[in-house]
Task: structure prediction
Amino acid sequence: MLSFDDVDSNPQALEEFTRTLTPKDLRRMTSEMIDEILRLVSECQDADVVFLPSDPEAHDTYAATPEEVSIAWTLGHVIVHTTASSEESAALAAEHARGVRYHGRSRAEVPWQGVATIQQCRVRLEESRRMRLASLDMWPDEPHLENVSPFIPEWPKLNAVSRFLVGLMHDQEHLGQIADIVRQARKTRLYPKVLTVTCRALPEVKKYLKLSNPIQSLNRIPLR
Result:
């Protein structure tokens, strides 16, 4: 899967990065990204989707309500957010490619509060794949790559290719967050079983594992 790290550290490199990319490349990159997210959540259970992770730095400037500004995001929340962002980029990219001047955002996001199962997450990801790939069918044979629009102050203006690409870059920024939520959720699911054994047979655990602090040792359990 292509990495966007060089562009993240130097936004001005975006134009050079996208110069040779074609709609075919964007199709491949989109499917690779969706496949990677599906891989990260492949072993998740329904409880993991609504699990509230520890995230001391949580802050959402664009939260729908003041109460949501500083809450940690569930797995379901991240999935609907990142898919909505990439779909917005794809929709705007199709308009850019057709020569339509930028006229504002094009965002629609599934309410995260209604996403409570891993099957819903998988369906949302596949639906997003279909929608993004379909948007590329709207590109003319000769897209209007000279048609650009502003993005954020420190970034260059975006054409159809770079506008589509920033959606994928946004996906990549959330991969680490998704992996961490999955890790925390899985660890929490395992804790009750390990803790029960530890409490019932504490002397034996100390004897055979030579733990001076069995509870503290649980925090060092390696998880995939």
About this structure: Residues 5-187 form a domain with the Four Helix Bundle (Hemerythrin (Met), subunit A) fold (CATH 1.20.120.450). The chain has one domain: 5-187.
